[in-house]
Amino acid sequence: MRDALLDRCRQGQISPQIALAQMVIGGVMPDGEVLARLARHELPDSPVRALADLATTHRDQLRVLQDVAASGIDPVGDDPVAATAALYDRLVAVAPEAAVAFYSLGDPTLLDRATAELVSVIRSWATVPGADVLDLGCGIGRVTLALADEANSVLGLDVSAGMVAEAARRGAGHTNVRFAVGNGRDLAGVGDASIDLLIAADSFPYVVGAGLAGAYVAEAARVLRPAGVMLVFNWSYRGDVAADVAEARALAEAHGLTLDRAGERPFRIWDGTGFRLNRASA
Ligand SMILES: C[S@@+](CC[C@H](N)C(=O)[O-])C[C@H]1O[C@@H](n2cnc3c(N)ncnc32)[C@H](O)[C@@H]1O
């Protein structure tokens, strides 16, 4: 597995951060000797050399992430929504940056770079200035807060009370931003036709895992204004983009939305896929 990840990184198919994160999750982190060999044998500007350098400079953070991975990073329990909330309550207390993007390696600077990349795609796929935005599964609020200056309002909703508390702490002082704990099953409390842009950044896989994709697309159709847009980054974690695209298309059609971007990988750092569902203009 480690060699396959190194090859994909070498060929530019995944970033050094993603390769490292997957090594940590898979329990195949190279030891110091292997890293030193990689640093010696790879060309100075090669991605694998960058990976070796990152692993060396982030040795302490990677140890923390190895413990986090060993303690489990999937929701476990009979009720998937409660299990997701419990998982993220636990993760945010230990490693807030890694909890929302494991490939940040727990480094706020790497997370900021990844957020800038994500926000630039959001800006090119939707209109942010003046919009009322709903950030579904907002985590620590990195996307919510990055959009606050341009948007009219941003509501960050998350099923994890721990995440919402952390997001509220980071967002103190933003008058057009609100964070709330959601019930994890629908968008209760969000008004009909009140949102211009709904974003689900790496939260929809949990919705899909809980069997709630249809319920949430129906809710998106309810809360979006005419010409409103729903952006989903990562539809599921099933590792089958064609199946994700088929499900997104079927659910969009079932709820009167159109899907015009599906399964693209628009990022350099992150390996997330993007989907855009649109409500028709009035
Ligand atoms: C990987 S984190 C991503 C957080 C954030 N979107 C970001 O990109 O920084 C996934 C988040 O989705 C939240 N989540 C999962 N299912 C949810 C649901 N049904 N309703 C609200 N939040 C949910 C989790 O609690 C977690 O904070």
From TrEMBL:
UniProtKB keywords: Methyltransferase, Transferase
GO biological process: methylation
Coiled-coil region(s): none
Naturally occurring in which organism (per UniProt): Sphingomonas aerophila
Entry protein name: SAM-dependent methyltransferase
Ranges of residues in domain Methyltransferase: 133-228
Record Gene3D superfamilies: Vaccinia Virus protein VP39 (3.40.50.150)
Highest taxon, organism lineage: Bacteria
GO molecular function, one term: methyltransferase activity
